[in-house]
């Protein structure tokens, strides 16, 4: 591994990124690379002018793209034997990451105090691929001079706020190649004179100028994560209907007084719903909070060791190879590892919190109605309308099926209830289909694209399948984080990102190894 400050000797003359000045001391056109202390955390990837043809453009700079960046750095560094791509060291690729947020942030709307990672820190951006990488969580702790104290914590599950800081630290290495404030709006195929698609135009909206910008590239990686899922009947743009992804930003706007006597509903069965419910209890002592869940009880996530093996990097290939029906069944069977479930320590904490209300408010059915915080099982919201009792509030009409399951009276019927609230927080997950919209202009290249329901499909290496011979071998699009149906439950998580980042580097640049000379390279050679 080379020290932080050593650069490949083939680096091109540097220019400052035009939008952000993320690297302190970065001097446009006058970079003296011997003054490396100013670039202590500078990766081996170099800025490419916007108007140059790129080798790779990555859409989104979340953990999935960050893991690719880390793997690419390691490949250029020569520190990872699984990324034996010497031609890359001779000719660093022209790569850029386009991220819509103004800076690196990982689910910042849910960085609640005390929230923990649901995964071992060893499943960081690098360790499982290359424990010697700069980008391991351990190296981060070492650089931040907290290694010993972290060891004293005796946990493999850091707080989410620390893990975000770790990823932000990793991301800072790549400031030179990340364009923040760029929301990609479409990816358009471009034909060569021979009639084949050889490049793509990536169009983005610059949030600072409001203008559309475009960049051209041979390869595109779409790693945009999920879009908030706000199901019917909730309105998608009501100021008091807040998706969990926005919780930290908006909760104090709709509930500004921590001593306020608010009425609040939280909808959802999973980790985010439980965390929000718990947060409201802890921070709004006078509020009345109702957690509406579909089932009888909150259920624990299964992270027991045998089951957890489904998240092994090696499982991706066997999942992909499986017959589609078997694959779908297995994914459904294993859903309790990730969806609609809550980590056991949080469940136990919430149970104890609610138990304490039985002491302070009484433990009879009548007293239960006065509890400030309650979980209401077998509930579904069927309509949302303005409240007539709470100013600017909402009235939730709720189908209550709990009598069917929980009543002592035989033949009890379901009921309809109304709940007036100041705000409702919907923790109802994410949709992972943004790539379908971004690739709208490429549908004529999709096998079966003339049928409205056809979706993009990828191979094991995440490369999009186009119609035969429509896209050149030296061009392509890869999808990340939206391939759960073919690649398994780890696809949307952090579990395999270190290895997948390496797989992506091999998939994007490994083909170049086939060519003996530089003419065989699948990517643009730097001048
Ligand atoms: C609160 C919360 C906690 C979680 N905790 C864990 C955990 O402990 N362990 C675990 O394994 N998984 C966890 N997950 C799952 C989560 O999906 C992964 O941690 C991880 O975020 C996936 O990375 P990603 O890069 O695929 O997606 P994302 O993290 O969503 O990143 C996608 C990036 O693309 C950007 N983007 C989106 N659209 C565009 C566009 N049009 N143009 C440009 N940029 C765009 C986004 O701003 C974002 O930065 C958690 C999820 C949530 C919501």
Automatic annotation (TrEMBL):
Annotated region (Disordered) at: 1-25
Q: State one Pfam family annotation.
A: Lys_Orn_oxgnase
* EC numbers: 1.14.13.196
The kind of enzyme this is, by top-level EC class, is oxidoreductase
Reactions performed catalytically: L-ornithine + NADH + O2 = N(5)-hydroxy-L-ornithine + NAD(+) + H2O; L-ornithine + NADPH + O2 = N(5)-hydroxy-L-ornithine + NADP(+) + H2O
The keyword NAD belongs to this UniProt entry's keyword annotation: no
**Cofactors named for this entry:** FAD
MF-aspect GO terms: oxidoreductase activity
Ordered alphabetically, the record's keywords are: FAD, Flavoprotein, NADP, Oxidoreductase
Q: Does the keyword Transmembrane apply?
A: no
Record GO biological process: intracellular iron ion homeostasis
Pathway, per Swiss-Prot/TrEMBL? Siderophore biosynthesis
Source superkingdom: Eukaryota
InterPro entries listed in its UniProt record: FAD/NAD-bd_sf, Lys/Orn_oxygenase
Give the family from UniProt: Belongs to the lysine N(6)-hydroxylase/L-ornithine N(5)-oxygenase family.
Per its UniProt record, what PANTHER family does this chain match?
L-ORNITHINE N(5)-MONOOXYGENASE, MONOOXYGENASE
Q: What is this protein called?
A: L-ornithine N(5)-monooxygenase [NAD(P)H]
Taxonomic lineage is: Eukaryota, Fungi, Dikarya, Ascomycota, Pezizomycotina
């Amino acid at each position: 591994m080379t020290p932080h400050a050593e650069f490949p000797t083939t680096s091109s003359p540097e220019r400052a990124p035009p939008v952000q000045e993320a690297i302190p001391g970065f001097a446009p056109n006058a970079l003296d690379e011997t003054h490396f202390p100013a670039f202590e955390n500078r990766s081996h990837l170099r800025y490419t002018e916007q108007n140059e043809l790129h080798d790779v453009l990555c859409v989104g700079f979340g953990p999935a793209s960050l893991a690719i960046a880390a793997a690419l750095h390691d490949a250029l560094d020569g520190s990872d034997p699984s990324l034996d791509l010497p031609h890359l060291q001779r000719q660093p690729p022209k790569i850029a990451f386009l991220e819509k947020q103004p800076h690196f942030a990982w689910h910042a709307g849910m960085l609640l105090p005390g929230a923990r990672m649901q995964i071992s820190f060893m499943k960081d951006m690098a360790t499982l691929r290359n424990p010697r990488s700069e980008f391991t969580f351990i190296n981060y702790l070492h650089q931040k001079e907290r290694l010993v104290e972290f060891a004293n914590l005796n946990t493999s599950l850091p707080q989410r706020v620390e893990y975000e800081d770790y990823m932000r630290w990793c991301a800072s290495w790549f400031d030179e190649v990340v364009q923040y404030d760029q929301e990609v709006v479409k990816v358009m195929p471009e034909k060569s004179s021979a009639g084949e698609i050889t490049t793509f135009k990536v169009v983005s909206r610059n949030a600072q100028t409001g203008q559309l910008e475009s960049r051209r590239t041979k390869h595109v990686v779409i790693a945009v994560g999920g879009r908030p899922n706000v199901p019917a009947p909730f309105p998608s743009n009501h100021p008091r209907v807040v998706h969990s992804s926005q919780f930290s930003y908006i909760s104090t706007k709709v509930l500004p007084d921590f001593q306020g006597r608010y009425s609040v509903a939280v909808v959802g069965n999973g980790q985010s719903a439980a965390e929000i419910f718990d947060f409201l209890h802890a921070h709004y002592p006078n509020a009345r909070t109702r957690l509406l869940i579909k089932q009888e009880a909150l259920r624990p996530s299964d992270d027991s060791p045998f089951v957890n093996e489904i998240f092994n990097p090696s499982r991706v290939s066997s999942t992909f190879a499986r017959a589609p029906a078997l694959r779908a069944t297995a994914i459904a069977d294993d859903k309790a590892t990730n969806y609609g479930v809550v980590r056991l320590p949080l469940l136990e904490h919430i149970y104890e919190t609610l138990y304490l209300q039985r002491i302070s408010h009484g433990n009879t059915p009548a007293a239960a109605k006065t509890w400030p915080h309650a979980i209401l099982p077998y509930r579904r919201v069927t309509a949302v309308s303005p409240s007539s009792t709470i100013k600017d509030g909402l009235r939730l009409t709720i189908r209550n099926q709990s009598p069917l399951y929980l009543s002592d009276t035989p033949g009890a019927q379901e009921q309809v209830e109304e709940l007036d609230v100041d705000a409702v927080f919907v923790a109802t997950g994410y949709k992972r289909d943004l790539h379908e919209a971004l690739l709208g202009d490429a549908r004529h290249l999709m096998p079966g694209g003339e049928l409205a329901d056809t979706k993009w499909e990828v191979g094991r290496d995440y490369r999009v399948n186009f119609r035969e011979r429509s896209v050149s071998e030296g061009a392509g699009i890869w999808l990340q984080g939206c391939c759960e149906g073919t690649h398994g439950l780890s696809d949307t998580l952090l579990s395999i990102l270190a290895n997948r980042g390496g797989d992506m580097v091999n998939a994007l640049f490994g083909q170049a190894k086939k060519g003996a000379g530089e003419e065989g390279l699948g990517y643009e050679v730097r001048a």
